[in-house]
């Protein structure tokens, strides 16, 4: 059946070609009355070429824009998007982009759901990795739609497979374990950071990213936050249980001209992966405890509940958005209110006892902490 006037046509090219069928449209006429053509592209089958021609006529797009590749779209999108993202988010998107290498040179208007699905099915990535590919392609399709390059977000139809059960058992530190941490402060470096998380409720990454400029010891609070709007730039009161640790780290950071409050042994910002693997888990092994870094946050929430602290204040300290409308909209809390609630922890735990357990050696800057060579280190220290 003949195509309508101005619809365009599909024709077969001469010679032996991998993609022998071409689709083209008429974009104008010469003074002599001859048609001016522009090609939409070449395709492996007549059916594929005809589909592209139908798609174009259903939703005409800029022919020049149709030549923009996946890689070019990514470059344009990332140049503005990455300014607003954290380093970890940027790294995730970059990894997802590398996983789409087969599509880098493909014109973006030609990419369909099955192209991306094939990449996901062939990859050996975890569910999280497959999810990141979907997130990236969805962002690129949205960018393409905003700029009239494509008319549909095909990533919405991707199948990532069954989502694994990510529920983790979180175990709060017991009072006996907290006591053990205090009595071991002078033995292993960074035990204090665990207590700082337990008594402030901050995430491990929030503590590691905390800058000296955001610590206000005179007013007894610090400003931190990642992830959500409720979490970012929130004021967290400093409990008396951990104020000595904040003072010690702050003093050392100022002395060493460090931007960050917590640094590694070389004086640089410590990555969460290094802290988790080389510090936290080794401390747990040496002290014969079984916990994850986020257990400190769960401990804080648990003990704040036990001492009947105001729930809204606990949410604000931890950076959670209130769920109840009246709390979210009409109730206002300041840093003094938060300080009063965090002080209630002293009703549950014996402040004087905990502080008295801190060995004076902990405050000696030149004290050599034991390394994580063996459990005998800890045993010999206790016996000496």
Explain what you see.
The chain folds into three domains: 52 residues, no CATH class; 88 residues, Tyrosine recombinase, N-terminal domain (DNA polymerase, domain 1, Orthogonal Bundle), CATH 1.10.150.130; 209 residues, Intergrase catalytic core (hpI Integrase, Chain A, Orthogonal Bundle), CATH 1.10.443.10. By secondary structure, it is mainly α. Strands 1-2-3 form a three-stranded antiparallel sheet. A three-stranded antiparallel sheet has the order 4-5-6. The protein has 17 helices and six strands. Strand 4 and strand 5 form a beta hairpin. The chain is elongated and about 95 Å long.
Output the keywords:
DNA polymerase, domain 1, mainly alpha, disordered C terminus, 384 residues, 44% helix, 3-stranded antiparallel β-sheet, elongated, 17 helices
Please list the strands of the largest sheet in the order they lie side by side: 1-2-3
Q: Remind me, CATH topology of the largest domain? A: hpI Integrase, Chain A
Instruction: Indicate the radius of gyration in whole angstroms.
Output: 30 Å
User: How far apart are the first and last residues' alpha carbons, in Å?
Assistant: 96 Å
* CATH architectural designation of the largest domain: Orthogonal Bundle
Largest sheet: 3 strands, antiparallel
User: Shape, please?
Assistant: elongated
Instruction: Give the count of structural domains.
Output: 3
What is the beta-strand fraction?
A: 5-15%
- Taken in chain order, the helices and strands follow as EEEHHHHHHHHEEEHHHHHHHHH
Helix/sheet category: mainly alpha
Q: Level of helix content? A: 40-55%
Task: Report the average pLDDT across residues.
Answer: 84
At the fourth CATH level, what is the homologous superfamily of the largest domain?
Intergrase catalytic core
Number of helices: 17
- Can you tell me the CATH class of the largest domain? Mainly Alpha
Catalogue the unreliable spans: 324-331, 374-384
- Say how many strands there are: 6
């Amino acid at each position: 059946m003949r195509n309508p006037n101005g619809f365009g046509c599909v024709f077969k090219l001469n010679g032996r070609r991998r993609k022998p069928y071409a689709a083209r449209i008429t974009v104008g006429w010469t003074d002599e009355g001859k048609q001016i053509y522009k090609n939409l592209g070449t395709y492996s089958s007549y059916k594929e070429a005809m589909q592209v021609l139908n798609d174009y006529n259903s939703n005409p797009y800029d022919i020049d824009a149709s030549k923009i590749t996946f890689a070019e779209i990514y470059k344009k999108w990332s140049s503005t998007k990455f300014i607003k993202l954290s380093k970890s988010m940027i790294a995730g998107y970059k990894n997802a982009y590398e996983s789409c290498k087969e599509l880098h040179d493909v014109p973006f208007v030609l990419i369909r759901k099955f192209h991306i699905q094939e990449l996901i099915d062939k990859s050996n990535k975890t569910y999280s990795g497959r999810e990141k590919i979907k997130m990236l392609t969805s962002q690129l399709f949205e960018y393409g739609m905003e700029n009239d390059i494509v008319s549909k977000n095909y990533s919405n139809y991707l199948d990532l497979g069954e989502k694994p059960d990510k529920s983790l058992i979180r175990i709060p530190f017991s009072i006996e374990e907290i006591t053990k941490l205090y009595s071991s402060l002078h033995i292993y470096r960074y035990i204090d950071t665990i207590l700082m998380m337990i008594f402030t409720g901050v995430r491990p990454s929030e503590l590691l990213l905390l800058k000296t400029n955001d610590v206000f010891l005179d007013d007894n609070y610090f400003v931190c936050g990642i992830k959500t709007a409720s979490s970012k730039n929130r004021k967290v009161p400093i409990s008396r249980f951990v104020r000595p640790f904040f003072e010690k780290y702050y003093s050392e950071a100022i002395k060493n001209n460090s931007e960050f409050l917590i640094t590694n042994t070389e004086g640089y910002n410590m990555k969460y992966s290094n802290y988790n693997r080389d510090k936290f888990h080794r401390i747990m092994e040496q002290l014969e405890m079984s916990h994850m870094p986020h257990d400190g946050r769960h401990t804080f929430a648990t003990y704040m509940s036990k001492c009947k602290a105001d729930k809204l204040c606990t949410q604000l300290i931890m950076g959670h958005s209130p769920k109840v409308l009246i709390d979210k909209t009409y109730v206002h809390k300041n840093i003094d209110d938060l300080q009063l609630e965090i002080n209630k922890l002293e009703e549950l735990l014996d402040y004087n006892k905990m502080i008295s357990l801190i060995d004076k050696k902990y405050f000696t800057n030149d004290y050599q902490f034991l390394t994580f060579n063996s459990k005998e280190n800890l045993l010999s220290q206790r016996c000496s």
